[in-house]
Amino acid sequence: MKYWVGVVSKNHVLRGVKLGIAQIGHGKRSGLARMHAGDGFIYYSPKESMDSNEPLQAFTAIGTVADDDIWQADEGDFKPWRRRVSYAKGVDAPIRSLLNDLSFTKGKTNWGYVFRYGLVEITENDFNTIAQAMQTKL
Known about the structure:
Blueprint: E1 3-7, H1 10-19, E2 21-22, H2 30-33, E3 40-47, E4 55-72, E5 81-88, E6 93-94, E7 119-122, H3 124-133
């Protein structure tokens, strides 16, 4: 079992939660293929929307990868790859209050750099710390 953080704006996270899917990396398949059924998955949203200049910097959804199926959706000109995620109820958790508690940000001045590739593998302890901050149990 592994644990992942996908980096997506909150408005896209909300759509994914509503559909029960994960879509990362602008619809690319490669990141989704690294995940497997039962893995923990969290979305981190740097902003409310892609067009926004206002930072959000919060964990905005949490769940478990539901199965090993990856499929390509057809949205006209856009054909993103997706996989199913069972999301849990939770609240947004601002990352700033967790910076010293997470192994991938602790003591780092440029902590946001870790999110540059859009998908980050994290430890079970970090996953549980974020889950607690989101007031959820999986």
